Amino acid sequence: MMNTERMRVSRLGCFLLVLFLASAVFALNPDRHISQYGHTAWRIQDGFFGGEVRTVTQTTDGYIWVGTEAGLFRFDGVRFVSLSSQEMEQMPSTSITALLGARDGSLWLGTDAGLVHRVNQHLITYLKGDGYISSILQDVNGEIWIVRDLIGNNLQPLCQVIGEGVRCYGHEDGVPAFFAGPLVQDASSNLWIGGDTTLLKWRPGSSNAYRPKALKSNAGIDGVEALSVAADGSLWVGIALTGRGLGLQHLVDGGLKTFVAPMLNGETLEVLALLEDHQKNLWVGTSNQGIYRIHGADVDHYRTTDGLSSDLVWKFYEDREGSIWVATAEGLDCFRDLRVSSFSTREGLSADAVESVLASRDGTIWIGDASKLDVLGSGGMSSQFGKALQGHQVTSMLEDHTGRLWAGIDNTLSIYQAGRFSQIKRQDGSPVGVVLGMTEDSENNIWVETKGPPGTLIRIQDQKVREAFPAPQMPLARKVAADPHNGIWLGLLNGDLARYRSGKTEIFPFTHHPDSRVDELIAASDGSILGATSFGVVGWKNGKRQILTVRNGLPCDSIHALISDNQGDLWLYAQCGLIEIANAELQRWWEQPGSTLKLRVFDVSDGVQPGQGHFNASAKSPDGRLWFANGSVLQMIDPDHLAGNAVVPPVHIETIVADRKSYSPQDGLSLPPLTRDLEIDYTALSFVVPQKALFRYALEGHDADWREAGTRRQAFYNDLHPGHYRFRVVACNSDGLWNAVGATLNFRVAPAWYQTNSCRFLSVFSALFVAWFLYQLRLRQMAAAISARFDERLAERTRMARELHDTLLQTVQGSKLVADHALTQFSDPVRMHRALEQLSEWLAQATQEGRAALNSLRASTTPRDDLADALQRATKNRFGPDAMEVTFSVIGDSRDMHPIVRDEVYGIAYEAIRNTCLHSAATQMKIELRYSQDLTVRISDNGTGFDPALADKAKDQHFGLQGMRERAARIGAKLTLVTSASGTELKVIVPGGIIFRTSGPARQRLFAKIRDLFRLKGEESNLD
Which among 895, 890, 903 is positioned nearest to 933, based on CA atoms? Predict the structure, then answer.
């Protein structure tokens, strides 16, 4: 962890060092006018600020901070963001008077009511309500110094911040009581303080006061309002005056000198702001005259008529990319260098209608416009040649091999020599006409293409017209270029190319388009020819014709001019900007006409002002600079000195908006559960061309690869699941220099209660438990089914045993008793005969009962008739004495019964009747069958009775009483047995809901209840 932190600190230190060094390298080109810089203004009237802009600074994180009377604003090049209301409430005042971006990354704010230190969005207030803070300075040792205006009895204008306190210095420390304004430190660590009466040089233990003459007079002055330390150690002093006096002074060798420049014309400057930038340009802000920039003896002026937001300038600031920021009474202005410079009337041209340009071999730039011929040389812009013109519009120019200037003026052709223009006329003495193009061939012939009617190609030698080729003898052309080997090339009005050589004309046609004339020609040394048209670049080389268009990567097809630089690269001045094609790419196009080329495009943000094709639209000066006439202004680019922006843009994540609620981008941020719409706002702090900053981002944990965002400064997500994420964003500046480290943010989307791990674990556990439970339930069901089948088999065996006992076995037993009784009296034939008859009858009955037992497996054992009839028949099959008296009674109406339940009841009653006959020795037996809500069967006798306890302990192979109880239990009946010495009574009560038949749902419920009681598959089939 410690190593990681050290690496981060090391990278941050290197990054800040690079930024510091870059700020010392990139600055505004002093050779250009202020009007040639890129200028952007943000005005109060447009709603950017709520009050006057007073001060500007930049912090080490790259942000620009703007202090106004209405509060503090942070700027990233695209958006102004005001300080949060919570922070503003902690401020001693919302009126910002001074700003300082400290080297530790913090921000110091001076207000009209105290000093505030902003560190990581935390505010520390000093001198609350005790002084108007005029200036804040961080010295070479990192100490913070402030000066303040005197308020009340406060007589200590200079203060030093020590820890969380402030130490102030007054008269006893060599600091007089005055209204202090600007504060700077020189190379010798002296502090310079400007006041209303004194310019003070101070260091602990030493002070020296300077009083300029204007201050000594103390008339109509506001005092020293601005200070700036020059690179040579001298001091620039700005004094605000309400009358005429010494506004700008220079302190050199201990003496103040008034700065005098011819361009000022003796004007007195009421100076409010001063800054010497890294190119030693001195920027002077005034109270009512805008900006002056002084470089050596050159003075340049820029004010509201040129586009400045206000002529009252409060503050200058140079950022680390070399741009100059200006705080004015009406807004904020920024000046930056442009790759393409423009020349117009503001730079000295006689008119904003540049039609042609020529760069002579001595470096002079000849500029032809609609009224004069201007010259740009080492001494600046001059229009002196305009007086020698014999006309107005300069359409075309040429420098021949002798250095003479040929100029097409109006409808004439003139040569400039010996300070005057002399005309070249046709053989008949008439003017040559409007000159569209000129060239000099290898034999020093001057070829001139003139405008019709009729259009004519003229050959001039020794300043005389030798030949004329009118149309249609020669195709109509607009441009002419010399072939490096022999002859000339013509750019025709229909977009074709033609070559005239040795008296012969050869035409190379291309696809024709409306208004497809050739506006510019380049004949290269390799024999190739290129032409600029409205449908692309037409080319011919070694008999091969090609067209370079948007299909090859051009941003547009409309090309006005083309020219090659010293490296052989091709430059196209097009409707959409200035396009550079490297020579290697151009050769690749010659070899592969359909290839897509790598280009570099300069647009309006680089200073390009595309116009229309004109007469002499391009030129190259000996120093390699390229010049273009666009019909309005003259533009120039220096391909050999295109300093790129080498400052890596800091990247920041500014805000996270989750479901329309904003969050501060703190690492480890936790977003609420079920977050649907997520927006992440980020920025890159490059102020040269902030609109060209490109971004790419990736959300680790969601995106598989980088997303190309282009210039968009927001990332959107709407499908994030709960979890941890890491957002990364990188950016490049307008020159394609990437900050590969970028910015990162770790955050999480909290899960809802049902998305937590504990809930997931509980859900999985519950699912497993349910699966286990269902599995166990299934196992039990299967076991129960198997057990039920075993129980059915056992119950069936038990039933068969009971049936055999109660029917067949009892009959066989009775037959045995008859046989035994007959054998005891075998000598009596009559008795023997009756016994054998009885035995035969009972064996027949046993046979019948055996068959009935077999049939009971499929059907009821008794016919489907009334139970009363069945019981009456059972009493006739007596097993005992014939003298037993049987009484049978039926109470209630007979009702339809379920056959199986009825058979069980019959079996119980039959067993009771048989036992009474065989074992009770009774003389009377009563049978009662009662039909009511339930079915009741009562059987009683007057026999000897028996002991129930002994009956429960049945002997082996004797199951009478046990069988009756089992039958009663199977059908849910209640069996009661009462026995004594005077007789026995058996009562069976069967619930009517079980034995009596019904219909509809009730019947279904009955069948279900019977099934539950019997649980016999074989018997269930008969429940109809």
Answer: 895
pLDDT in tens, 722-744: 999 999 999 999 989 999 999 99
Peptide bond into 453 cis (omega under 30): yes
**Strands 678-684 and 694-700: what pairing?**
unpaired
CB 105 within 8 A of CB 99: no
* Amino acid, res. 565: D
Question: Nearest-CA neighbor of 166 among 136, 141, 140?
Answer: 136
Measured CA to CA, the distance from residue 54 to residue 97 in angstroms comes to 6
Same fold, 2-44+134-343 and 858-1024: no
Report CA-CA distances (Å) from 746 to 11, 196, 669: 20, 54, 7
Plot region of 150 (φ>0 → left; ψ -120 to 50 → alpha; else → beta):
beta
Q: Which CATH architecture has domain 651-750?
A: Sandwich (2.60)
Token pair listed for 421? 């223009």
Opening angle at CA 366, ends 365 and 369, nearest 5: 130
State how far the Cα of 898 lies from the Cα of 993, in Å rounded to an integer. Answer: 10
d(CA 764, CA 542): 78
* 631 contacts: CB under 8 Å, gap ≥ 6: 353, 354, 355, 611, 612, 614
pLDDT (tens digit per residue) in 149-199: 866 566 789 999 998 899 999 888 988 888 888 999 999 999 999 988 788
Whole-angstrom Cα Rg for the chain:
59
Where do the domains of the chain lie?
Answer: 2-44+134-343, 651-750, 858-1024
Q: Which two tokens stand for residue 478?
A: 């607009």
Could you tell me which of 433, 446, 413, 479 has the C-alpha nearest to residue 617? 479
Quickly list DSSP for 346-370. GGT-S-S-EEEEEE-TTS-EEEEES
List all residues 6 or more positions away from 828 whose beta carbon is below 8 Å from its beta carbon: none
Task: Tell which CATH classification among 3.30.70.1130, 3.90.1170.30, 2.60.40.10, 3.30.565.10 matches the domain 858-1024.
Answer: 3.30.565.10
| Range of weakest confidence among 226-235, 315-324, 911-920 | 911-920
* CB-CB contact of 906 with 867 (8 Å): yes
Lay out the sheet containing 599-602: strands in order across.
559-564, 570-574, 577-581, 599-602
Six token digits for residue 316: 């200058």
Question: What gap in Å lies between CA 75 and CA 78, rounded to an integer?
Answer: 7
Cα 131 from Cα 293, distance rounded (Å): 33
Burial letters 147-178, b for 16+ CB under 10 A, else e: bbbbeeeeebbbbbbeeeebebbeeeebbbeb
Q: What is the mean pLDDT of residues 839-848?
A: 75
Q: CA dist 92 to 95, 113, 851, Å?
A: 9, 6, 118
Domain 2-44+134-343 in CATH 2.130.10.10? The answer is yes
How far is the C-alpha of 703 from the C-alpha of 675, rounded, in Å? 17
pLDDT tens per residue, range 900-934: 788 888 888 888 888 888 778 888 899 999 999 88
Over residues 47-64, the pLDDT tens digits come to 999 899 999 999 999 999
Q: Are strands 331-336 and 38-43 parallel, antiparallel or unpaired?
A: antiparallel
Q: What is the rounded CA–CA span in Å between residue 350 and residue 384?
A: 10
pLDDT at 104 over 60: yes
Q: What's the count of helices (H) and strands (E) in the chain, helices before strands?
A: 14, 70
* Alpha carbon distance 151, 392 (integer Å): 66
Which stretch of DSSP H or E encloses residue 9?
A: helix 2-25
Residue 427 pLDDT > 60, yes or no? Answer: yes
pLDDT, tens digit (0-9, with 9 covering 90-100), for 763-814: 999 999 999 999 989 888 887 877 776 666 666 667 666 666 666 666 776 7
- Identify the bridge partners of residue 710 per DSSP, sorted by sequence position: 695
Facing residues of 325 across strands?
Answer: 317, 334
Task: Residue 777: count other Cβ atoms within 10 Å of its Cβ.
Answer: 10
